[in-house]
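In this supplementary section we document a worked example of the pipeline. Step one takes a protein sequence of length 195 as its only input; no multiple sequence alignment statistics are reported here. Step two produces a three-dimensional model, which step three serialises into C-alpha cells for compact storage. The input and output of this example are shown verbatim.
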Amino acid sequence: MPKPHRILILDGHPDETSLGRALSRAYQEGARASGAETRHVALANLDFDPILRGGFHSKNALEPDLVQAQQDILWAEHIVWVHPVWWSNIPALMKGFVDRVFLPGYAFSYSGASPFPRQLLKGRSSRIIYTQDAPNWYYRWFIGRPSVRSMASGVLKFCGISPVRLTDIGPVRRSSEEKRAEWLRKVERLGMARA
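The serialised model returned by step three reads:
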C-alpha cells in the first residue's frame, strides 16, 4: 500500500499551549519533511455550534468552518486525530465536531432495510494520538479505552476509514521535559513515515 501523500491533522485540544498542540505540529513537521502535503486544523479555532440540534433528522446548515472541514476530510488520504483523554473519553469540543461533520449523506448512508451503512469515507486511513495522565495499561485494561472504541470503531471504521492506528502518550502529569521531547520526536517520526 503506497504511503499517503495528503494528510489532514485534526487537533482536538482546546488549549493552544498544550502538549497535544505541540504533538500535532510535530506530526505535521515530520510529514512535510517526508514530502507529504498537509493541512492542520485546530478545532478550538473553528467557529461552530458543537450541538447537533434536532439530531440527524433536522437539516442544520453547516457553518463555513465545518463546510471547509468536510472538504479537508474528502481531500485527505490519511487523517490524524490528536486529543487528550478527559473523563476516559474525547473532549466535548471534538465530540461536537464529529457530531456536526460526520453526517448522514456525507460520512455514511443507509439504503433499504439493511442495518449496515454505506461507508462513504472509504479509501482513507487514520491515526489517533491520545494523551492521558493515567498509565496506558490502566486505561486499556481497567477502563476499556472508551475514547479509542468510540472514535476508531464507532466513528472512523463505521464510515469506512481503515486501518485506524493508535499512539498513546502518557502519563503526561508529572512528566519531565526530557520525556515530552522524546514524545515529540516519536510523533515527528510517525509523520515522516506518514503512518
